[in-house]
Amino acid sequence: MDIEARREGLAEALWRVIRRDGLERASVRNVAREAGISMGALRHYFGTQDELLAFAMRLVIERARGRIEALDLSSCAPRWAAETVLREVLPLDAERRAEAEVWLALTGRALVDPVLWALRDESYDLLRGLCRRLVDMLVESGEAAPGLDADLEAELLYAVVDGLAVHAVVRPERATDDLVAAVLARHLDGLSRRA
């Protein structure tokens, strides 16, 4: 098996442990057991638990980036392109929900882990930059009013998307997939008409 694929499989085992048992139970021993390998075999791919956690957090970023880069938006109007892109970072299916749950758990640990802190900041900067590019796209296409405060609108869009992701993880019975999608759509509709 390809080394990178094996590392991703181990990160996914970590994700399952975190989602089922919590981050505090995500020891090397428990992850190895979840993956069906020995601790020694796991250490062949990750020397420490911190390396595994950092890789798992990086994997969330890379998977979202990969989904966005794979989109063919050539025939989409800018408003719909923006919605299509942003849906890829929201927990609207099982895969994205798993990523969001793990992300939120690791973000809590980032408060005391400098490597995770840096990854958290990188991810938030990427999301903020994505929101800014989408707002700029709406402005440049004429779908948003001229003179729009693009910085402020990008911050608002960023806050909406980030907040929806957190709500969907923390209160999934309240922030259902349908509600999350509807709030995103309503916000983008308002942005595209805002004077």
Features:
195 residues, mainly alpha, Tetracycline Repressor, domain 2, 9 helices, 75% helix, elongated
Summarize the structure.
The protein is mostly helical. It has helices at residues 3-21, 28-35, 39-45, 49-69, 78-87, 94-109, 114-141, 150-170, 177-193.
Describe it.
The protein is mostly helical and 195 residues long. The protein has a domain at 75-193: Tetracycline Repressor, domain 2 (Orthogonal Bundle). Helix content is 75%, strand content 0%. It has nine helices and no strands.
Write the layout of secondary structure elements.
Blueprint: H1 3-21, H2 28-35, H3 39-45, H4 49-69, H5 78-87, H6 94-109, H7 114-141, H8 150-170, H9 177-193
Helix pairs in contact: 1-2, 1-4, 1-6, 2-3, 4-6, 4-7, 5-7, 5-9, 6-8, 7-8, 8-9
Fraction of residues in H or I helices = over 70%
Low-confidence stretches: none
**CATH class category of the domain at 75-193:** Mainly Alpha
What oligomeric arrangement do these chains adopt?
single chain
CATH structural architecture of the domain at 75-193:
Orthogonal Bundle
Please tell me what the overall shape is: elongated
Please indicate the percent range of residues in DSSP E strands (runs of 2 or more).
Answer: under 5%
**Number of distinct helices:** 9
- Count of β-strands: 0
The arrangement of helices and strands along the chain is HHHHHHHHH
* Arithmetic mean of pLDDT: 94
CATH superfamily of the domain at 75-193: Tetracycline Repressor, domain 2
Outline the biggest β-sheet.
none
**What is the rounded distance between the termini?**
55 Å
Which fold does the CATH topology of the domain at 75-193 refer to?
A: Tetracycline Repressor, domain 2
Rg over C-alpha atoms, rounded to the nearest angstrom? 19 Å
The structure class reads mainly alpha
